[in-house]
Amino acid sequence: MNIPESSLTIGSMAAAAGVNVETIRFYQRKGLLPEPDKPYGGIRRYAGVDVERVRFVKAAQRLGFSLDEVAGLLTLDDGTHCDEARQLAEQKLADVRARLADLRRIESVLTTLVTSCQASHGTVSCPLISSLQHP
Fold first, then answer.
1. What CATH code is carried by the domain that includes residue 23?
2. How many domains does the chain have?
3. CA 55 to chain centre
C-alpha cells in the first residue's frame, strides 16, 4: 500500500485497515498503535505504516495471539529477533494443540452422551442431564 505520510483521517485509516474506528481507538488505549499529535484546530492524521500495524495486529489475533502477546511481537519487529518470535509462535502452537486435545475430549464425551440420549426411551431421567448433575 502506497499511502503518503500522515494523510489519513481515523475513519479512512480504519477503512483501509478493514476495522472500525473504535478498534483503532482501542488499540491506541492498549498501546498497540501510537496516537498521532492533533494539530491545533485540526484533526489527527495517520500514515500507511499505521494501517500496516493494524493489519499486523489483526493477523496475529487471527492466529490466536492475545493483545498482550501481540504487543510482545510488535517489540520484535525490527527483523533481528527471529528466534524470540519463533519461540512465541512455538508456545502458541503448543497452546493450540492442547486446546485441540481438550476439544477432542469434549467431543468424545458429548458424542457418548448424545448417543445415550438417543438410545434411552421411556425413562424419566435424561442421561445427559443426569451426567451433568452427578459428574
1. 1.10.1660.10
2. 2
3. 12
Residue 121 identity:
H
Q: Which three cell numbers stand for residue 78?
A: 525490527
Cα angle for residues 13, 15, 18 (degrees, 5° grid) = 110
Q: Determine how many CB atoms are found less than 10 A away from the CB of residue 1.
A: 9
Domain assignment present for residue 38? The answer is yes
Residues in contact with 73: Cβ distance below 8 Å, sequence separation at least 6, in sequence order: 56, 60, 65, 85, 88
Q: What pLDDT is stored for residue 88 in this prediction?
A: 92
- Same domain as 54, residue 81: no
Q: Which residues pair with 46 in a beta bridge?
A: 8
Report which DSSP code applies to 31.
T
Q: Looking at the whole model, is its pTM more than 0.70? A: yes
For residues 43 and 82, membership in a common domain is answered with no
